């Protein structure tokens, strides 16, 4: 190799790589989202550490107090501290969101892989089935499921997972098809690899890598949906410290005690936003890796 | 021509501020562009500048060609002349003037007024440069709308006139077409029409013909020459000395941000002094006999410990033995269905034989069915009729399971090496996969055995790559390095046949020369048989023993390379040969 080529290679790529990587180390949005996510995880794992009080402890004397130093987020109609309840509710909200996303991804993976790998007949069938599911708004699908299996945290989780599955299936199918027809899969065929080897070595890893991003993005949405179901009284029931249920309980007093619904709502929004910001950050990094 | 009036107008407006008369410029008046000691740097002030002391000028009606490798700074030069060097660029110059006006420190707004009016730009990739959703007529009219007070009807008339001038057939119809509906050459013409809409005194053409077939390339060069005769100054940027030789009056050779040699085209092409110029001239494959090295010898890093014949190499070809056919195609036919339902014959009755130890070159322009032929030979698509046999055994008619036994005998090198590598894998993983893949050893995440590792190192050495590249992703390698990795992968199974589909067409001429030399060396060392596919007749002439010329899915002429090139029989072959750029002095 000539000096020219070496220099072209060294001179261009590392410099370009460095200069393009530097500015996207940690954006402001990403840093804030990361900090908030850290707080959420701490609250989910050790709620006592963040808010030592009892989320269900009734104190009728201090009912309906507005936010103050004693009660950061105020208190509800039974005098329970909203901050304590929001913190203790983090665990169940995150768990519901994560489980629902995993269920959705899992189902989507099965359907998408069937459609993408097993030939045109299966592809056609699965696609028509997905189109039927797409015809219903996701939340309606979830409601239908709950109608059949009855309300509750578990059914709400599965329902949200089911509702998100068609979208994931579509994306996974598309990704599979594009990876399958890519030049590097063809190159592996020319090298004499069997379809099984190619699937394990090239197709699956390149299909699954983007799912990580999708999952992170999906958790935020799943939490919003699960909260919506709880708000409608179809998920967690009111005395439980769950964001959607708290939102629902606060609705009655929205005129006099806005903080009862504002802070759970704020946490739902912030969680969804930070999950999205983190997901986008990971996505950008992976694309340039 | 209206170019003259445009010139004198801008001259009159700008002659006073600089005050320096343009001395030594033919034709009189201000030069279209004049650059003295241009320095452009990116990033930290202490870092090496990308351009270092570049000086040149282009007079009206003159063509200066800047020739250099990718990374030599020629494109940065072009961008600087358009005020497009970028936000992070630090531009300094003793003089930088367009049409006589100083453009140093010009604001973005000032640049916007000048682009199109004082300087036009033609880029390499017309498909990307034109908006796919807008008719080309509208695209061309844009600059007229922004820079002139012409009414809609006058603009339309001017657009038609421009399209006619650049030789787009049926201008009235072409105006309404979108870029996707035009051929590559037509797109390039439309792009040139847009660039000359305002009759700028200077036209910058950055690799204007690199993506085009030779016959179209010749036409575009002729078009640029006619613009030059009409008084436009042309700054032609290319990596290929043979291409610029047709058009340039003067040539400047760039290397590492400096102009290393500059002079009249004739002298530069016949009596080059600087080693970089000599190397570029030597790299041009056309009219060079087979086996002659195109790149300087001994540049490849060779570690003596690894030069052992441990790689599975097929028997060397012994002269005098009867020729053995290793790859044979008979009556191949492949149809594709167009989106509108009609059928297209991509390959129409193609037959060829590849003898052991020789190279069969298949040459043709885009759409001639070359790549489909390669894919058929690799059994990546099934022929509608005909058969491919490898080493005398059925290949295309066998099942993939049966083929897998023969696959190690055939290696493939692709035009776009990068996309042929799994983006997650490093160079080492790519090669390790190729080396240890067929057997069950070293699959998946296993760390692989020591013999595998040694074999990977030998492969790297065979293709002249340093071991330091093992951990890199192909994405971070240069084009030449990627193609070397691709060749190493193809050699991993010790094949007898190598099928190369446009292996050098995305590379600079000097890098192309290195890769061609490498293939030649490997062929001799290992007795490889090559099916070499290219649109570049010069390359084919240099590498082939046998040649097949393809047109519209058929082989229109075939025979020994020496015969075909000396006395082409088919008119198409003659036309192709006539269009090949060569140093004609």
Entry keywords:
heterodimer; A: about 290 residues; mainly alpha; 11 helices; disordered N terminus; B: about 575 residues; alpha/beta; 6-stranded mixed sheet
List the helices and strands and how they pair.
The complex is a heterodimer of chains A (289) and B (585).
Chain A: H1 3-21, H2 28-45, H3 47-50, H4 82-117, H5 119-135, H6 138-149, H7 153-180, H8 183-190, H9 195-231, H10 243-251, H11 259-288
Chain B: H1 2-18, E1 33-42, E2 51-58, E3 63-68, H2 74-81, E4 89-92, E5 95-98, E6 101-102, H3 108-114, E7 119-122, H4 126-129, H5 136-147, H6 152-165, H7 171-174, H8 184-195, E8 202-206, H9 214-229, E9 233-238, H10 241-244, E10 250-255, E11 258-264, H11 265-270, H12 275-283, E12 325-337, E13 343-355, E14 359-363, H13 370-377, E15 385-390, E16 393-394, H14 400-406, E17 410-413, H15 427-436, H16 450-462, H17 479-491, E18 497-501, H18 509-526, E19 529-534, H19 537-543, E20 546-551, E21 554-560, H20 561-566, H21 571-579
Parallel strand pairs in B: 3-9, 3-10, 7-8, 8-9, 14-19, 14-20, 17-18, 18-19
Antiparallel strand pairs in B: 1-2, 1-4, 1-5, 5-6, 10-11, 12-13, 12-15, 15-16, 20-21
Helix pairs in contact in B: 5-6, 5-8, 6-8, 8-9, 9-21, 12-18, 15-16, 15-17, 17-18
């Amino acid at each position: 190799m000539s000096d020219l080529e070496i220099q072209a290679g060294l001179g261009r790529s590392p410099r370009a790589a460095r200069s393009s990587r530097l500015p996207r180390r940690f954006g402001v949005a990403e840093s804030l989202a990361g900090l908030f996510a850290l707080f959420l995880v701490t609250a989910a794992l050790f709620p006592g550490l963040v808010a030592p009080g009892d989320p269900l402890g009734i104190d009728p004397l201090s009912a309906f107090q507005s936010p103050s130093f004693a009660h950061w987020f105020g208190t509800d109609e039974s005098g329970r501290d909203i901050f304590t309840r929001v913190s203790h509710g983090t665990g169940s909200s995150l768990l519901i969101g994560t489980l629902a996303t995993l269920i959705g991804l899992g189902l989507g993976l099965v359907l998408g892989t069937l459609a993408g790998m097993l030939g045109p007949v299966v592809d056609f069938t699965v696609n028509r089935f997905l189109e039927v599911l797409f015809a219903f708004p996701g939340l309606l699908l979830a409601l239908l499921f709950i109608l059949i299996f009855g309300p509750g945290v578990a059914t709400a989780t599965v329902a949200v997972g089911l509702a998100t599955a068609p979208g994931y299936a579509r994306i996974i199918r598309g990704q599979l098809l594009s990876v399958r027809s890519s030049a590097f899969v063809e190159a592996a065929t020319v090298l004499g690899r069997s379809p099984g080897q190619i699937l394990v070595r090239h197709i699956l890893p390149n299909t699954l890598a983007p799912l990580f991003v999708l999952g992170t993005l999906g958790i935020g949405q799943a939490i919003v949906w699960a909260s919506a179901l709880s708000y409608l009284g179809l998920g967690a029931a009111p005395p439980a410290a769950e964001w959607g249920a708290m939102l629902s309980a606060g609705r009655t007093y929205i005129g006099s005690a806005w903080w009862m619904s504002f802070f759970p709502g704020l946490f739902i929004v912030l969680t969804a936003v930070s999950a999205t910001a983190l997901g986008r950050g990971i996505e950008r990094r992976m694309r340039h890796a | 021509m209206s170019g003259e009036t445009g010139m004198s107008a801008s001259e009159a407006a700008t002659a006073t501020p600089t005050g320096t008369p343009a001395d030594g410029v033919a034709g009189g008046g201000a030069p279209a562009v004049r650059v003295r000691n241009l320095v452009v740097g990116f990033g930290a002030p202490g870092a090496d500048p990308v351009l270092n002391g570049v000086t040149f000028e282009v007079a009206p009606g003159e063509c200066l060609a800047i020739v250099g490798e990718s990374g030599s700074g020629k494109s940065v030069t072009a961008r600087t002349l358009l005020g497009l060097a970028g936000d992070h660029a630090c531009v300094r110059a003793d003089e930088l003037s367009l049409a006589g006006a100083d453009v140093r420190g010009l604001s973005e707004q000032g640049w916007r007024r000048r682009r199109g009016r004082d300087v036009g730009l033609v880029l390499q990739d017309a498909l990307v440069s034109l908006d796919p959703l807008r008719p080309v007529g509208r695209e061309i009219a844009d600059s007229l709308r922004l820079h002139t007070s012409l009414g809609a009807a006058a603009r339309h008339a001017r657009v038609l006139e421009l399209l006619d001038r650049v030789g787009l057939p049926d201008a009235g119809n072409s105006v309404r077409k979108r870029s996707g509906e035009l051929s590559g050459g037509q797109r390039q013409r439309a792009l040139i029409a847009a660039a000359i809409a305002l009759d700028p005194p200077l036209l910058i053409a950055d690799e204007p013909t690199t993506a085009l077939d030779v016959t179209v390339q010749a036409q575009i060069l002729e078009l640029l020459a006619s613009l030059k005769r009409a008084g436009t100054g042309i700054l032609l940027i290319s990596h290929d000395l043979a291409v610029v030789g047709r058009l340039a009056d003067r040539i400047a050779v760039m290397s590492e941000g400096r102009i290393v040699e500059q002079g009249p085209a004739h002298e530069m092409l016949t009596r080059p002094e600087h080693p970089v110029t000599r190397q570029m001239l030597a790299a041009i494959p056309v009219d060079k006999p087979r086996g002659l090295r195109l790149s300087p010898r001994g540049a490849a890093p060779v570690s003596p410990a690894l030069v052992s014949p441990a790689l599975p190499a097929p028997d060397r070809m012994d002269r005098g033995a009867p020729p053995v056919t290793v790859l044979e195609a008979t009556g191949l036919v492949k149809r594709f269905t167009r989106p509108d339902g009609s059928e297209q014959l991509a390959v129409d009755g193609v037959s060829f034989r590849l003898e052991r130890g020789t190279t069969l070159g298949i040459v043709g322009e885009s759409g001639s069915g070359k790549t489909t032929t390669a894919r058929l030979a690799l059994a990546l698509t099934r022929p509608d009729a005909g058969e491919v046999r490898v080493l005398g055994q059925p290949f295309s008619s066998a099942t993939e399971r049966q083929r897998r036994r023969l696959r190690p005998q055939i290696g493939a090198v692709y035009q776009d090496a990068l996309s042929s590598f799994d983006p997650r894998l490093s160079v080492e993983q790519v090669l390790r996969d190729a080396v240890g893949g067929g057997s069950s050893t070293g699959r998946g995440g296993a760390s692989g055995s020591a013999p595998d590792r040694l074999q990977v190192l030998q492969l790297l050495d065979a293709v002249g790559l340093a071991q330091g590249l093992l951990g890199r992703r192909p994405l971070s390698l240069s084009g030449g390095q990627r193609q070397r990795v691709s060749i190493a992968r193809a050699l991993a199974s010790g094949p007898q046949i190598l099928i190369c589909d446009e292996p050098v067409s995305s590379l600079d001429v000097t890098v192309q020369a290195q890769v061609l030399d490498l293939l030649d060396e490997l062929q001799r060392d290992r007795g490889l048989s090559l099916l070499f596919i290219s649109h570049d007749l010069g390359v084919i002439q240099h590498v082939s023993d046998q040649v097949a010329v393809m047109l519209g899915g058929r082989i229109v002429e075939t025979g020994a390379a020496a015969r075909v090139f000396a006395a082409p029989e088919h008119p198409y072959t003659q036309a192709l040969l006539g269009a090949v750029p060569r140093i004609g002095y």
